[in-house]
Amino acid sequence: MIKVFYNRLFLLCGCLIFSIVLYAQQERNYLTKSVSVAQLAGMLSTKDEWVNFPSYENRAGWSVIDSSLRNDLIRKAVSKLDYKYQFVPSSAYLAFATTGDRGVMERPYAQNCNAVRDLVLGELMEGRKRFIPQIINGINNLIEMQTWALSAHLALQGKHKPGVIDSTQNIIDLGAGRTGAMLAWTYYFLQKELDLFKPGTSAKLSSEIQRRIVDTYEERNDFWWMALNGHKLVNNWNVWCNYNSLTCILLMEQDTKKKINAVYKTMRSVDKFINYYKDDGACEEGPSYWSEAGGNLYNYLSLIKSVTNNQIDLFVQPLVKNMAAYIYNVYIGNQYYVNFADAHAKIIPDPGLIYGFGNAIGDDKMKSFGAFLAKNERFNSGDIFETLNYLFEQKNISKTSNLPPLPKDVQYKETQITIGRDKENSLEGFYFAAKGGNNNESHNHNDIGSFILYYNSKPLLIDIGSGTYTAKTFSAKRYELFNTRSLNHNVPLINGIEQQAGAQFKSSSYNYRSSANDVSLSIGIESAYPDSANVDKWERSYLLSRGKSFTIKDMFSLKENNGKTSDNFVTAIKPIQVKSGELIFNVSGEVVKLKYEDEKMDYKLVSIPLTDPPLIKEWGNSLYRLEFILKKNILKVSTTITISK
Question: Could you tell me which residue ranges the Heparinase II/III-like C-terminal domain spans (predicted)?
Fold first, then answer.
């Protein structure tokens, strides 16, 4: 089935206020160094021959798609024939400012957009024109909206009152860009058919896309996500908005000179996104955002490559290859991923996107990962471009080895993420991941030195991950949220003090080693705490002894022991204390032991009730924080906790 693509958009998109202040690391400028504006003018296709899909009229071209996939899409469209498009009132936008509620605006908007998307795809598959009238109804609904932007993103209007739409200006955010791109493909494929049923529809649609997206992109340089005119803010918004804007520009802009300049402008902007990434290619926003960050870079670069007749090809760059490989390198098993930052532990990336990226960079492991995901998930995002790419690649995907790559260890040196598993290409045994970095990363949680531990690819010690986004999520009150605080990550509480947010709160050292028998990592974490923690030195070490055990060791020196100091671990499994110094966990029927030094630490179990539906779905009704509390008379010591079968 096709997942609802706007659900992904609305769950993932963050506000620009907080926790995304990222600065370019290297002036690589791969795109703009590869070609000048004048050279681009000689490369750019001025017609639509760059589009790699058949025209609507070419029914033979659509017939090559697997019949079961076509029928799935047609059935989906049939289910939307009686859909009643919803009006999104101004009060729904105001709700974000008054109560912090995004959903009251986002849900009906998403459902309207999903209906149009489903109907368009169904019409492309069937070609009988029976879905056109309902598509027109959806187009009219969207055209009547004052803005295609989301209520949470109206700050892009500038000093306008929060929650109030400024009808005198257009803004491009994640919602506006995505809707614009969807409608641009609708126009491209169905222009004649729309006018056949209601003359003037295509002209009206073209005018709205031009006004809201194309002209706005061409005229404005001040959107923070563009990172132009001295702005240095950059994250997934940059490439996501640029990809959607580029789609609209290529399909809708009729003025050749304006098109060339606008395409080059997207290249200048996307260079800022690529420049920010570290050489290791890790997505510090987490795997939930990989599809929007690295994945949309693939979409963007695919368009650039196609429209320049393969003359601009960044898929050969080692950095781009590393950015692609991240998504399979952080795969644990059973749909679980390493979910540092604002990420869910379980995600379902788009298999076609992953296969296509792997094919573009010549990475057989990534192609296999895409084929593996495709066994159980035909579609995911619902983006028309991504969906059509998948449909026309499906036969190749079905012929590809579908075994997921399961590396025995992965090291992201610059981003400071280390991963190790007991057995290569196996879901059995222990799997851990740990991180260093700093507490000003994109979608940051205060979690320097934190780790996760899985057994037989089932969660044991966890990262809670991301909950429902509200106005508080991206505000000065972000670290009042229980899931972003260091208290509820697998790091120490020192003299009653938690880690703090900011680039200055970071790891002081990060040393990694791997061999056939073990993986070890040590991280200096004292600099992640403010002076009030009264800590001189704190080194957190991890040792995965393959096939045997996982050990957490803390070596530290305190200036004072004048508050609660504890090693805190979060789990969704309530442990049983069999005796002092030993706990056991039931991990899907397997018993796992945890031993701690009871002469140095006291044990306490704290229940954390969950109320947020996404977190309840992921972890159940409660989580548990294990607190191993340092005894009062200790200032300088090392402590060891060992977990084994």
Answer: 435-561
